[in-house]
Amino acid sequence: MKTFHNPHHTLHQGREEMFRGRMVPCHEVPARLDFVLAELQRRPLGALATPSVSETELLASIARVHSARYLDFLASAWDEWVAMDPANAQRDALPSVWPLGNPHGFRADVLPANFAARLGLFSFDSGSPLTAGTWAAARGGAACALAAARELLAGQRSAFALSRPPGHHAGTDFFGGYCFLNNAAIATQALRDGGLGRVAVLDVDYHHGNGTQTIFYERADVLTLSIHGDPTTEYPFFLGHADERGAGAGEGFNLNLPLPRGTHFATWRATLDRALDAVDAFKANALVVPMGLDTFEGDPISGFTLKSDDYFAVGEALASTGLPTLFTFEGGYAVDAVGTNAVNLLEGFQRSA
Ligand code: OKP
Ligand code: ZN
């Protein structure tokens, strides 16, 4: 399979995130992508390329998933942050005030002139620093997703969007969880727009893919599934429960499979079979896999216990659908193992595809 990597990813390099009342070094670092790329050079799965998509086409694809006012916000965010105080040029932007959703009654329909207020309006946590290069890096990541979708539309069995920063927590009009543009959703919509009737998105990151779920929640043409740490105890806490089944036309087209912190591979693997049965029943034309490697036993912020060798079996199981399959790169914070684990999964997929 061909890999598209983001040549602009190092432009996004947050310094610190807020964690329980203090600032700690960011977990989502550029070295993560570099380790995956280095492992792909050691164990090639196919060509490595940077995406070549025109800016116009890219922005059109991004706008199929994200709202215009959110994209306007992202495009000018850094300049507005610095305009608030020239000294801000030396600091990452982090929100500190949020308009809670209904039934709390704060309004999200009136766009505040104050940038700090808008920073909160378009985000849901204080762990995702926005930097001078975030918008450019995020567009580069989305371009990988779009290029990978085009590979599938051209008839390839699989493609890998090595798309940092990650995307699965980003919604139509918000960032959070280290994510700014939802790369998997952008790829999914591009597959739909390219003529594929039904697309399944199976999120295997440790954290619930809240952004992807909400984007497609009322649609029957995209089945969203996520296997993740139970939100009762795990980030993102406020979504990802088993009773979220979709709404309206999308009723029955979302499947959450939360598992308790501490879950071992045998249970995780059996749960993957439940997800794959649902993908099969949906009669998908393509599969998108937001691929997080933070299910690894050594992950510093997660709670499952998968071992490096287990990822071969994950890839093999994903290949069993027989569907054209697109992978995006999501979490995985045991940085020196993330390359091995990612390529193990992809190699497991490719050798049995
Ligand atoms: C992004 B992705 C935990 C802090 C949690 C946010 C985690 C975002 C994960 N101690 N901060 O899904 O890997
Ligand atoms: Zn994660």
Structural overview:
This protein has helices spanning 31-42, 55-63, 68-84, 115-121, 134-153, 183-193, 210-215, 265-282, 310-319, 335-352, and strands spanning 2-5, 16-19, 22-25, 48-49, 158-162, 199-203, 222-229, 254-259, 286-291, 325-329. By secondary structure, it is of the alpha/beta class. It has one domain: 3-Layer(aba) Sandwich (Arginase, Chain A). The protein has an 8-stranded parallel sheet, sandwiched between helices. Strands 2-3 form a two-stranded antiparallel ribbon. Helix 1 crosses helix 10 (335-352) and helix 5 (134-153) packs parallel to helix 6 (183-193). The protein binds {5-[(3-aminopropyl)amino]pentyl}boronic acid and zinc ion. {5-[(3-aminopropyl)amino]pentyl}boronic acid binds next to loops.
> How large, in whole angstroms, is the Cα Rg?
19 Å
The percent of residues in helical segments reads: 25-40%
Name the helix and strand elements from N-terminus to C-terminus, one letter apiece: EEEHEHHHHEHEHEEHEHEH
Question: What topology, given as strand order, has the largest sheet?
Answer: 4-1-5-10-9-6-7-8
Profile the largest sheet: 8 strands, parallel
% residues in beta strands: 5-15%
Give the bound compounds: {5-[(3-aminopropyl)amino]pentyl}boronic acid, zinc ion
Shape: globular
Summarize the structure.
Helix content is 36%, strand content 14%.
Note the main attributes of this structure.
binds zinc ion; 8-stranded parallel beta sheet; two-stranded antiparallel ribbon; alpha/beta; 353 residues; binds {5-[(3-aminopropyl)amino]pentyl}boronic acid
